[in-house]
Amino acid sequence: MIIGVPKEVKDHESRVGITPAGVKALVEAGHKVLVEHDAGALSSFPDDEYQAVGAEIVGEAYHVWSSADMVVKVKEPVEKEYYHFREGLVLFTYLHLAPLKALTDALLSKKVIGIAYETVRDKAGTLPLLTPMSEVAGRLSVQVGATYLEKEHGGRGVLLGGVPGTPPGNVCIIGGGIVGTNAAKIALGMGAKVTIVDLSLNRLREIDDIFGSRINTLASNSYNIERAVCEADLVIGGVLIPGAAAPKIVTKAMVSKMKKGSVIVDVAIDQGGCIETAKPTTHSDPSFLVDGVVHYCVTNMPAAVPNTSTLALTNATFPYVMKLAKLGAAEAIRSDAGIAEGVNTFNGFLTYKAVAQAQEREFTPITHLHP
Ligand SMILES: NC(=O)c1ccc[n+]([C@@H]2O[C@H](COP(=O)([O-])OP(=O)(O)OC[C@H]3O[C@@H](n4cnc5c(N)ncnc54)[C@H](O)[C@@H]3O)[C@@H](O)[C@H]2O)c1
Question: Ligand 1: does its nearest atom lie under 6 Å from the Cβ of 238?
């Protein structure tokens, strides 16, 4: 199979779909890999590393897209990439189609086989291609929060770990899932006092089993949340209700009672945010103040650490890339129910129910299409 790796063109996207390690494995398996010039540069993978393991470096995106049987990317295509679509092309990337009607139209009208990272499932029923980015964002949230707590960055001048004779910083993490537990690990490592709030008592039990008395666990209700955020120096929002907008768990009134110079990192902002005062920000203008509280609400946090993020993402995506390349899309979809779940568009049909519902369009199960 010919596999194409274009350079990402979405604003501030610095990851790349396949690393030199992936290219090496694909080439050794007999496939041809076309990598657009500088596709890995922002992730610290220069062209010569790709070339050294057998990739062909291609100057123009057009040649990558037009020659490849399968294109492997990171972010959903932006409008200027739509004209590369053609019948039978396999596109393996994050698609996030629900709010993107124009992209859905383009994929359907050109009969692209669109396989979305975010809907591929593993045997345990989890979403293995979302997990690594939540791990990155969770760990990064504390690093970012610690920086914004510095006076220079508008914070109250608290060192998370404190020093002997001073109290440590107080970190309140709302949502104890992948983001929350990864944030907790880093906050504990830095010596902070950590509280995790979650709605699921079973999840809190698991967290208690993992961290023991090093972490305080709290059941999620507005009384507990108000007390916890008022005591916190750093609040991290990591709530998720799958398929729904995040609930506004920390209200405007609660934020107004927080300590001046405390910091909120609302990681859940990509689902609307779980803090009422949060609004999406970008890496070029990441923070703002509300009632003296610093808010950091970047929707694509992993792009701040593209080398780690690319490695983490491709560790998870690569086995699927290999399977699609080895079997071809049709056989891979037939033989792997997890890949079949990833198929959002196939031969002009919309094959992912939640996207069809969000866009009020006809849904055709992939199993009815006999790929
Ligand atoms: N901003 C970014 O760059 C970025 C990157 C990765 C992930 N995210 C987002 O971070 C969020 C969390 O992702 P995750 O992978 O940790 O999800 P997850 O499903 O692993 O964890 C979510 C947790 O929220 C808990 N929860 C649900 N309702 C709650 C409530 N009312 N109060 C307290 N807890 C509640 C759940 O019980 C669960 O433990 C998602 O919105 C995800 O899209 C953002």
Answer: yes
